[in-house]
Amino acid sequence: MEPVSKVDVLIRRLDSELPLPRYAHPGDAGADLVAAADVELPPGERAVVPTGMAIALPDGYAAFIHPRSGLGARLGVTIVNAPGTVDAGYRGEIKVTLLNTDPRATVKLRRGDRIAQMVVQRVEQAVFHEVTDLPGSARGADGLGSTGGFGSAPDLGNNEHSREGV
Ligand SMILES: O=c1ccn([C@H]2C[C@H](O)[C@@H](COP(=O)(O)OP(=O)(O)OP(=O)(O)O)O2)c(=O)[nH]1
Ligand SMILES: [Mg+2]
Fold first, then answer.
1. Where are the domains of the chain?
2. Which numeric CATH code is attached to 10-122?
3. From CA 61, how far away is CA 59, in angstroms rounded?
4. CA dist 91 → 15, 25, 98, 143 (Å)
5. CA of 86 relative to ligand 1 center, distance in Å
6. Whose CA is nearest to atom 28 of ligand 1?
7. What atom in ligand 1 is closest to the CA of residue 96?
8. Measured between alpha carbons, how far is residue 42 from residues 15, 45, 107 in Å?
9. Among the bound ligands, the one closest to the CA of 90
10. In this predicted complex, what is the ipTM?
11. pLDDT for 50-87, tens place per residue?
């Protein structure tokens, strides 16, 4: 297996009792972030949760704050703006806007609970060149469900292509 490429990221703990972000397994894409405070989320409510961490990413990188699938599947907790974008120049505390999508249960999370995962990636900035016509492509302007809904993929013989947006 190819070794995972690594990048050095400076990190400041705003709360020295909390653990640094940690990859649960070698090769994992996301390092878990913990809550720096207790949080109670009634059904359908959201809260901005501090993580107690601030980072300085090298130029050309960004960090993306993704939900944890276990929290989503078990409790219905997700992130409103998933994935959150942490810019290379941001030096403030990383915060996570959690949302309880469960229609009935209040979710209680404790300080130290792992609430999100941070994926550090190389990013590029676009240089926008305005044109009056874009080059053609196989997809063209088809989108937003143009290939059908949850049935078989179009190339498996089910002609869902015409069932627009379903
Ligand atoms: O989940 C997130 C998303 C963003 N941020 C921080 C880092 C990021 O660099 C900054 C701005 O984020 P974004 O650009 O997504 O928010 P905005 O609403 O456009 O705010 P701004 O006007 O400050 O750019 O907020 C977080 O701490 N958590
Ligand atoms: Mg912004």
1. 10-122
2. 2.70.40.10
3. 6
4. 15, 27, 21, 37
5. 6
6. 95
7. 1
8. 26, 5, 6
9. 1
10. 0.99
11. 999 999 999 999 999 999 999 999 999 999 999 999 99
